[in-house]
Amino acid sequence: MKIQRRPRTLAVACLLAATATLAAAGCAKSETSNNAGGDSSQGAQEAKSPDSTSGSGCSLETYGAPKLDLKNAVVGFSQSEKEANPFRIAETQSIKDEAKKIGVKKLLTTNAQSQLSKQISDIQDMLSQGAQFLIVAPLNSDGLEPALKAAAAKKVPVLTIDRKVNSAACKDYVAFLGSDFVEQGKRAADAMIKVTGGNGKVAILLGASGNNVTTDRTKGFVDQVKAQAPGLEIVAQQTGEFARDKGQQVMEQLIQSKPDITAVYAENDEMGLGALTAIKAAGKKPGKDVKIVSVDGTRNAVQALVNGEYNAVIESNPRFGPLAFATAQKFYAGEEIPENVIITDREYDEANAKDSLGGAY
Fold first, then answer.
1. What are the φ/ψ torsions at residue 71 (nearest 5 degrees)?
2. How far apart are CA 319 and CA 23, in angstroms?
3. Who's near 81: CB < 8 A, 6+ residues apart?
4. Tens digit of each residue's pLDDT, the chain (361 residues)
5. How many CA atoms are closer than 13 Å to the CA of 291, on its beta-carbon side?
6. Could you give the residue ranges of the DSSP H alpha helices within 59-180?
7. How far is Cα 336 from Cα 10, in angstroms, rounded to an integer?
8. What's the pTM value of the predicted model, to 2 decimals?
9. Checking DSSP bridges between strand 312-315 and strand 263-266, what pairing results, if any?
10. Torsions phi, psi of 62, nearest 5?
11. In which element (H, E) is residue 204 found?
12. Could you say which of 207, 215, 233, 310 is the most buried, measured as most Cβ atoms within 10 Å of its Cβ?
C-alpha cells in the first residue's frame, strides 16, 4: 500500500507534543550479556514533529470502535519473533512495564516465534479471550489480513508497532508507530562513507524478507551510497534473516568468495555481531580491516564500538510501551491519531559510544 500524504490536524500536533516527553521503562538483556538493558532515562522514545507524520487522522468515531477505559480493559500484545533478540526482549518488556504502570486491567501477551500462521492464530486466540484493544508487532507486512479482519469484526482497534502492514489505515488498523527505515538506511550509509572515506567494497547483510524494514533499510543505504560515494562499491547483498548465527554464516561464506570486502552494512546488530565473529575467525580485524555499521542500538553492538571492533550503530528504539499506551489513551479520548507516528532514533559512533552505553539495550 502506498502511503498517501494528506493534511494534518491540530489533534496530531497535540498527540505528538504530549508523547514526545515520554520515557520508556523497558530494559533488556542481550543474548550474550548479563547486564541490564540500559538506563531508561537515556533511552526515551520520542515522536518526531508533526511534519514527520503522514496520513489523515483516525478517531474513535471514524474507526467505529466503542469507548474504553484501559484500566477496565483486556489488552493484547502480539510479538512477532522469539525473544532471544535484544530488540524483541526490550520491546515486550516495555509493553508489559507500561501496562502495569498505567493500571491496565489485564494484559495478554503472545509470541509468534517468527511464524506468520502462529501470529494469526495468536491474535485470534486473544480476541477469543476477550481482548478489547490490540498492539501488534507484525512479522511481515503482508499476510495478517485474517487476524485484522477478525479484530475488525469484533470492533477491536489494532495499533501496529515497529513494522508496517500493507492494509488500510483507520479500517484494518488504527496507526503505525515506528522508525523511518529509509532514513535509517541513509544514515547508515552516511556513517559508512565517513568511516571508509567513501571507498572500498561493501557487503550488505539483509534482514528477513517480506517486511518493509528490510526493503526500506536497503533502499536508504543503496540510494545514498550511489548518490554520495561512487567509490564505495556494493559487491554483495545476502540475507542474514536478522539472526546472529545466520549473519555469521553468511559472512563466513562472503569472506571466502569475496576476500577483498572492506566493509559490512548489517541491517540489524545481531547480524553485525555475527559478521564480527566471522571476520575475527578469518584472521582479520573487525572495525579496522573490515568496517562494520549496523542498525539497532543493542548493548553488545555499542560495547563492540567502544572496544574498537565496530564503527557505527544507528539506533532503532524498541521501547514502545509509553508511546503505544499514550496513543491508545488519546484515541479513546476522541483525538485523531495520524496514520504514521514516526519516532526519533539516536546514532552511536566512536566519539559518543562510551558515554552513551547506558542508553543501549
1. -75, -15
2. 9
3. 88, 111, 112, 113, 114, 139, 242
4. 333 333 333 343 444 444 433 333 333 333 333 333 444 434 556 666 444 455 578 999 999 999 999 999 999 999 999 888 899 999 999 999 999 999 999 999 999 999 999 999 999 999 999 999 999 999 999 999 999 999 999 999 999 999 999 999 999 999 999 999 999 999 999 999 999 999 999 999 999 999 999 999 999 999 999 999 999 999 999 999 999 999 999 999 999 999 999 999 999 999 999 999 999 999 999 999 999 999 999 999 999 999 999 999 999 999 999 999 999 999 999 999 999 999 999 999 999 999 999 989 9
5. 24
6. 60-63, 86-102, 116-128, 145-153
7. 9
8. 0.86
9. unpaired
10. -65, -40
11. strand 200-206
12. 310
> How many H helices and E strands in the chain?
12, 12
* Amino acid in position 9: T
The residue behind cell 552513551 is 356
Q: Which of 100, 175, 105, 118 is nearest to 343 (CA)?
A: 175
